[in-house]
Amino acid sequence: MGSADFGDSNLLAAVFTSTPVRAGWRVPARYPFRYPVRFHRRHSRPVVCLRTEHVGEVSAPRANHDRFHCPMPTLPVFRFSNLQPVVRLLREAGAPVERMLRGAHLPCLGLEDHAVFVPTHLGLAFCERAARQEGIGDLGWQSGIQLDMASLSFARAALALAFDLRDGIRRLGESLRAESPLLQLQLQEQGDEASLAYRPSVPYAYEGGAFDEQYMLAALTEFLGAAVGPQFHPRRVSVRCLDPRAFEHAPTLQTVPIQVGQSRLEIFFGRSLLDRPVAHRCRETTCTGLPPPPEPWDFTATLHHVVASHLSDGLPRVDAAAEMAGMSVRTLQRSLSQSALTYRDLCDRIRRDVALELILDPLLTVEDLAEETGYGDPANFTRAFRRWTGTSPRTYRKTHLR
After folding, report:
1. Are 32 and 54 in contact (CB under 8 A)?
2. Is the pLDDT of residue 383 over 60?
3. Is residue 16 part of a domain?
4. Based on the domain organization, do 156 and 204 belong to the same domain?
5. d(CA 196, CA 205)
6. One domain, residues 224 and 128
7. 81: part of which helix (H) or strand (E)?
8. Helix or strand or coil: residue 342?
9. Are residues 251 and 114 in the same domain?
10. Distance separating alpha carbons of residues 34 and 321, to the nearest angstrom
């Protein structure tokens, strides 16, 4: 059997002693993105147990053999553009989308700026709660099939450059990994059958896992259909969901055997399709102007992106930021301290970055800058700006606009 892995695979664990990591140790679902220090049952030696779904790479223990040092946690994110089909369906159903986004700690800025990054676990939890609240059991599937393959940067790049399906899947995996490095896409070939498997960056048991499976099953099926043509038909599908009724409204799967309760999402099809030329090609291969996603294991930079997206609505308090990061307030503060920062320092840095970008716009007044950076009083903004740069906003603008 041949296989090609387009994501991070296998269990990665950093152990600061010779004690092995035992199978069955799990991260509590409440804090899925922290690396907890666990003690061996027979020995008082700490280990750090890492989950494969979230880990890209693990740095070696420090030279001073600090046994209680815990690696920086990861924070998987994706672009708000992935939520656009969901938002569109919810608006068609008359749902109060803006209020639901705020209740889920998601930025309303994403409705205008689709390149905004949101935490994966919050985005998926929002979708699953919205599906229950609005009574749309197949919201994930409907959202997935509404994705336009030619409008998504990662799918467009794969469809534009691939010369056959095998090459298209490889390029899709590379593009997906560039968009969200913790996702895993794997192509397997055995006999006359091939399969495309998907592992998410958030555990299936976490809220939103069922929606993510429906969404990705529909999206991957649409991608395979766009690459092969209308004659594409899966032989069978394996899902982690235990209820086959979750896919009863999927028209392309009406005659496809669905195996529930499996270890991962996997689509099986004829191996001969891998050598077929791509049926649908896109001319444009990149999305211009989109910033690259932050590295998920750079926790401080990722949290900076997540918190900054809320600036127009007011920066969240530390407890709300901790919920966005999927951890406790104490763990959040300890993680930031590894970068010699506090949460107040992070918020101050966000305001400073926005101010230094907007100050170069001659049409904005000091009052406008104060409002954009979350300062109600222009005098408070001026004092903060002088602290950041050592000069006043007007003097800084005159100096840098010459």
Report:
1. yes
2. yes
3. no
4. yes
5. 21
6. yes
7. none
8. coil
9. yes
10. 14
Which one is predicted more confidently, 61 or 268?
Answer: 268
Return the sign of the alpha-carbon dihedral for residues 247, 253, 254, 256: negative
- Do 329 and 262 belong together in one domain? no
Average pLDDT, stretch 198-209? 77
CA 78 – CA 151 distance, rounded (Å): 16
Q: What is the distance between the alpha carbons of residues 189 and 162, in angstroms, rounded to a whole number?
A: 19
DSSP output for 8-64: --S---B-SSSPPPPTT----TTSTTS--EEE-SSS--EEE---TTT-S--PPPPTT
Do 297 and 56 form a contact (C-beta atoms < 8 A)?
yes
pLDDT of residue 282: 54
Residues 202 and 119 in one domain: yes
CATH number at residue 357: 1.10.10.60
Share of the chain above pLDDT 90, in %: 38
Beta bridge partners of 3: 188
Q: Tell me what pLDDT residue 280 has.
A: 61
Which of 42-56, 135-149, 312-326 is modeled with the greatest confidence? 312-326
How many separate domains does the chain show? Answer: 2
Rounded to 10 degrees, what is the CA torsion of 135, 141, 143, 146? Answer: -130
- Residue 324, pLDDT above cutoff 60: yes
User: What is the span of the domain harbouring residue 246?
Assistant: 77-275
Q: Is 281 helix (H, G, I), strand (E, B) or coil?
A: coil
